[in-house]
Backbone:
DNA sequence: GTCTATAGTCCGATAGAC
DNA sequence: GTCTATCGGACTATAGAC
């Protein structure tokens, strides 16, 4: 993080990171599969922990279990680390490959949660949708938490629950248009080359 | 796609792709920012098209507009290209970097949809959540469409609407646990090292 | 089109811990 | 003896600079 803050991610070579840590470049690659991974150390273990929380929770609707597990795993750990989280997010946002790695990690977490719901007896399709819905709430809540200018705003756990509630409101409405895509659909109904 | 099917993505060099196309390696990088992009050509234009559809639709609830636009843009174009889509997804699924690029592209599409909803007068937070919700429905529907063994199953557009409806059901329930994370939260309530 | 740097892999060698 | 962590060199492909 020191080197990234100084020269940026792209401007920092693996050799420099290794040297700062008192190691060689080759050793770095024994610990991290690629350069990006150094910013996501421990994410697999965290996903496992969230999954375990989902499994262990008392009976509840699927989405409630997901948001409770996410709040419990991230809310308590991250509140107090706001400035560190901001710094890390700034580095990630400034680099395309890092952003891609991050969404991929979030995807793995989604899959782990879906599987954990399955172990609670939730059927496959519902588990997938509840996991995706919970992760939408988490990502939106996290982004708001990072973006807030307030030094000590609403804690992350509260935000997650509120975002999940807002998501429920958005998905509650009817899905059919008054005149089902009359203009839009006919314009593309024939196969284009 | 021919070369990827023969030797796999990693086993195919940019030089080979360029040669097959009658070009040089450097010219390839003039058309595509990196090797991965060759599998996502036209995705930016497609995102723009979806956004335009969202803007142009008649008045409707935000999520209904999103699913209608996605169905209209992808449903008609992709049905009939199922085997091609399966081949492409197989290549992407077999390579980590390609999977990461794909989720990143889907993230860009989500942002474009959210912005388009803003131009319909939807407020920011609701736009984001409706875009995310619609994309969850799209991704789940797409995965089911690809995975189905049936040669001619339910068309993609129908699946999207059904997944959105299922998502509404999942997010409808109460969000609080009976005993708000009594066991799970207390175990991690103190700051861990 | 040429040149170059960096990421990442494969080979093997060494040394300490148990 | 086995496991694991370190290191070194040679090598290729991606990708950027010019």
Residues:
């Amino acid at each position: 993080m020191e080197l990234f803050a100084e020269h940026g991610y792209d401007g920092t070579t693996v050799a420099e990171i290794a040297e700062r840590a008192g190691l060689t470049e080759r050793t770095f690659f024994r610990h991290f599969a690629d350069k990006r991974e150094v910013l996501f150390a421990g994410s697999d273990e965290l996903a496992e922990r969230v999954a375990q929380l989902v499994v262990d929770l008392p009976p509840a609707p699927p989405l409630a279990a997901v948001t409770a597990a996410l709040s419990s795993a991230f809310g308590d750990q991250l509140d107090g680390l706001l400035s560190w989280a901001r710094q890390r997010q700034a580095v990630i946002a400034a680099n395309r490959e890092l952003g891609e790695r991050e969404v991929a990690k979030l995807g793995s977490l989604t899959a782990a949660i879906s599987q954990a719901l399955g172990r609670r007896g939730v059927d496959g399709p519902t588990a997938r949708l509840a996991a995706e819905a919970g992760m939408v709430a988490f990502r939106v809540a996290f982004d708001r938490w990072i973006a807030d200018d307030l030094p000590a705003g609403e804690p992350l756990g509260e935000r997650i629950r509120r975002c999940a509630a807002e998501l429920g409101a958005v998905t509650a409405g009817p899905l059919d248009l008054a005149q089902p895509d009359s203009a839009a659909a006919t314009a593309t109904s024939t196969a284009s080359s």
Remarks:
- Chain B touches chain A through 65 residues (CB under 8 Å).
- Chain B has two domains: 1-31, 38-170.
